[in-house]
Design brief:
The protein is of the alpha/beta class. It contains 17 helices and twelve strands. The protein has a six-stranded parallel β-sheet, with helices on both faces. The protein has a four-stranded parallel β-sheet with strand order 3-4-5-6. The longest helix has 17 residues.
C-alpha cells in the first residue's frame, strides 16, 4: 500500500498538482524523494499518535483549505475516522482506494457515517470490487470503480528469445514475491515432486525475502526434499525481469491476492502462469490470459497442472505474445492514469 501510493503519485504528478500527505517518520515519508521529483515542495509530514486525532484533523483541514485541494485519494482504512471530520463541510471529491480483501463487515452505524462523504471507491480488481460492495457501507451518491494498477511492460521478441535457448534445456520455473505463509511457496516446491518422479529436469528459482519468521518452517520442508538442488533460493533481487525472461513457468499457488503485481508481471513476460483457483486469479483467466488454475489448496491437483504445463509450453508458443499484448492493454500506465483522471474534478 505504501509503495503503491508513492508510485501512483509519481504517475499523476505530470498531469495534476500533487500534494502528498504522509505520517512523519513513516516508510513513505522517508522514501518519498525516490519517487516524486517535486516532493520537497508538495510534501507534508504530519505527526500524530492515533487514527482519531484532533491534531491530525486540524492539520489536514488546514492544508486542504490553504492549498484549495478539491480531490483526495486515500490509501488505507484506519485514518478514515479523522478524514471524515477533517473534510466535514468542505467540497472534497473523496476517493478511497482498496487493495486488500476485507473480511470484517463495516456496515455498522459508525462506519456508515465515516464513509458517508466518499465519492468513489476504487478497487484494483473485480474481486476487490465485489468485496467492497459486500463489506463497505456505500452511500447513495458514491460509485465503485475498478482501476487496474499499471506494471512495467517491455516489448519482447519472443521468437528471438526462444531461438537463443538451447534444445533439451531444463524447464525453468520461477516464483517472485515475499516468502511468507499463505503465498504458496511451500505448495510450489512440493508440487515439483511430480517432475522429479517423472525424470523431468528443472530449475525452480524463488525470488524474494523471508518474512515474519517463515524461514524456519520453510527450510524444514525444503531440506527434506530429494530434489532440493533443483530449487534455488535467490533472495531479494532488484532486477526480477532478467529471471522472468529466462523462465518458462510462473508457479504462484497463493491462497489469495487483491491483484498480484508479481503475477501480472509474469504474464507480461509471456510466461505460462499456474495458480490456485481463488480471488483475482479467476479474474485473470476471465480477462483472456492463457494460464492454468488448480483447485484451491489441493497440492495433488497442482502437481497435475504443473506436469501438463511442461508439455503445453513445449508445443505452443503463441500464448506468450497473446499474454504480453493483453497485459500491455490492461495494465499500462496510460490506462491507470486515465482511470483516475476521469474521477477528478
Amino acid at each position: 500500500m505504501e509503495i503503491s501510493s508513492l508510485k501512483l503519485a509519481s504517475k499523476l504528478e505530470s498531469y495534476v498538482n500533487i500534494f502528498f500527505l504522509t505520517r512523519k517518520s513513516s516508510f513513505i515519508d522517508s522514501n518519498l524523494d525516490k519517487y516524486l521529483n517535486n516532493s520537497l515542495n508538495n510534501k507534508f509530514s504530519i505527526s500524530f499518535s492515533s487514527n482519531l486525532s484532533i491534531k491530525l484533523i486540524f492539520l489536514i483541514r488546514k492544508i486542504v483549505k490553504s492549498k484549495n485541494i478539491k480531490n483526495v485519494i486515500f490509501f488505507g482504512a484506519s485514518e478514515i475516522k479523522s478524514l471524515y471530520f477533517a473534510f466535514l463541510g468542505l467540497n472534497i471529491n473523496f476517493i478511497v482506494r482498496h487493495a486488500t480483501t476485507k473480511l470484517t463487515s463495516k456496515r455498522d452505524f459508525i462506519h456508515k457515517l465515516l464513509y458517508s462523504n466518499v465519492n468513489y471507491h476504487v478497487a484494483i480488481s473485480e474481486h476487490l470490487k465485489e468485496n467492497v460492495k459486500k463489506i463497505v457501507p456505500l452511500n447513495n451518491h458514491c460509485e465503485v470503480k475498478v482501476i487496474y494498477p499499471s506494471i512495467k511492460i517491455e516489448n519482447y521478441d519472443f521468437n528471438n528469445i526462444l531461438s537463443s535457448r538451447k534444445r533439451n534445456e531444463k524447464i525453468r520455473i520461477i516464483h517472485t514475491g515475499r516468502i511468507i505463509k499463505g503465498k504458496g511457496q511451500l505448495d510450489a516446491i512440493l508440487a515439483c515432486e511430480i517432475l522429479y518422479k517423472n525424470n523431468i529436469e528443472f530449475d525452480f528459482f524463488i525470488l524474494g525475502s523471508f518474512e515474519n519468521g517463515f524461514e524456519i518452517e520453510f527450510k524444514k520442508v525444503y531440506e527434506k526434499l530429494k530434489y532440493k538442488d533443483s530449487i534455488h533460493l535467490i533472495g531479494f533481487e532488484k532486477d526480477i525481469f532478467k529471471y522472468l525472461m529466462n523462465s518458462d513457468i510462473f508457479l504462484f499457488p497463493s491462497y489469495g491476492e487483491g491483484f498480484c503485481n508479481s503475477y501480472a508481471e509474469a504474464l507480461s513476460c509471456g510466461l505460462y502462469c499456474i495458480s490456485y483457483e481463488n480471488t483475482t486469479f479467476i479474474e485473470f483467466k476471465k480477462l483472456g490470459f492463457i494460464n492454468a488454475l488448480s483447485k484451491n489448496k489441493d497440492i495433488e491437483l497442482l502437481k497435475d497442472e504443473l506436469y501438463k504445463a511442461v508439455f503445453f509450453i513445449s508445443s505452443n508458443d503463441t500464448y506468450r505474445q497473446k499474454n504480453l499484448d493483453l497485459a500491455k492493454h490492461l495494465f499500462s500506465v496510460d490506462s491507470e492514469v486515465n482511470g483516475y483522471l476521469k474521477l477528478l474534478k
